[in-house]
Amino acid sequence: MLTEINFDGIIGPSHNYAGLSLGNLASAGHAGEVSHPRAAALQGLAKMRHNLALGLAQGYFVPLPRPNPVFLDALAADGSENPRLTAAAWSASSMWTANAATVSPAPDCGDGRCHLTAANLVTMPHRAQEWPDTVRQLRLAFANSAHFAVHDAVLPCFGDEGAANHMRMSAGHGAPGLEIFVYGTTGGAFPARQHVEASRVVARRHGLAPERTLFVEQNPEAIAAGGFHNDVVAVANERVLFAHELAFADPDGTYAAIRRAMPEAEIVVVPADAVSLADAIKSYLFNAQLLTLPSGEMALIVPSEAAEHPRVGSWLEGMLASNGPIRRVLPVDVRQSMANGGGPACLRLRVVADPAMVDPRFLLDQAKAERIDAVITAMWPESISPDEIGSPALAERIVSARSALLETLDLSELAQPLS
Ligand code: SUG
Q: Does the domain spanning 3-414 belong to CATH 3.75.10.20?
């Protein structure tokens, strides 16, 4: 049966705060701080266990090889010339799997298979190195070619950030959906990371029906306020879109186009006079997982920062009291990831598929969660300070921590970096 599976990125042992992402205010604001990789990974794992306990299907992807020798080789760098290049080679940014790929479930695609296109992430150097290793993992997890097609990234002439700039609305996960690609236009203070040309390539490759595909411009004001991905200002699930009033360049046109394609759509708009763009971005209210629980109710898994924020918290209380489509708000603590601009929604890639068709080595159960927990607790560094980035001894520790994880998950074939 088709169901939504959330694949979270296990937070890697090199997690650090290097301030690499221009336009991501949290990344810039925490640059140079001491990070806590073990706590970070345990927070991420606790979120996965929480969702599993709600009765939801949960998967994961493993951290990519870091420090990345392939990246340094390609740049003819040995790690000594430029601290930002070294930090890039060490980045644990693959934890944010909402940027791993764009996923179109089988009912939306011309050939009846689920299509995944890896995101090239070209706008940020530390992220541009991710996709070849990501594809390798996607090809293992979704190897069943009767059900899945995994595509390489779009050519780097057009920036593509994957599912973070893509929403899907449908009557139910297994029904044909309306796919909404949100792009930015260049010219603002911060880079527009998603180019419409890349979105169009993805839509063509996946064989989407034009009448069920929308290309919507993100509000440049949202990008300027730190909304570097659409999933920082909007999230959709089945018939519900939950968006900030200033998320889209043409909000009324966007809502009208959605309603034309999907008359049953319910659009919950948060007005700017209740929650400003700045509050939304600081609290990551929209970087929430909007999920359908087994009971059929919808829940919003928000970062603790959103529930604790005075204006955002009271808006959420009002929403629950109003009898709207979102019936539960469940806060989770992912503070280590949040400090780099990654909330609950950034940490997961949604794939609608039959779990029986996915390689079980990428699916979580409570017993496996305990094994992952044990490896993280024993092997992940407790902290990384900025002056340790580049240290050969720490690099060795990071490599063996990842190897231990791969071994416990029977994924040792991912141990060698790509050549
Ligand atoms: O690409 N942060 C990530 C956060 C990604 C969030 N993803 C979604 N919104 N879906 C980024 O900006 C920070 C790394 C550093 O600064 O060291 C970073 O890459």
A: yes
Does the active-site annotation cover 317?
no
pLDDT tens-digit series, residues 229-277 = 999 999 999 999 999 999 999 999 999 999 999 999 999 999 999 999 9
- Regarding pTM above 0.70, the answer is yes
Atom of ligand 1 nearest to the CA of 17: 17
Label residue 14 exposed, middle or buried (CB < 10 Å: 0-12, 13-18, 19+). buried
Q: Domain residues of the chain, as ranges?
A: 3-414
Q: How far is CA 96 from CA 130, 267, 346, 383, 397, in A?
A: 11, 26, 5, 20, 22
- Whether 290 lines ligand 1, by a CB cut-off of 6 Å, is no
DSSP letters spanning 89-151: HH--GGG-GGGTEEEE-GGGBTTSSEEEEE---TTSHHHHTSHHHHHHHHHHHT--TTTEEEE
Q: Which amino acid is at 187?
A: G
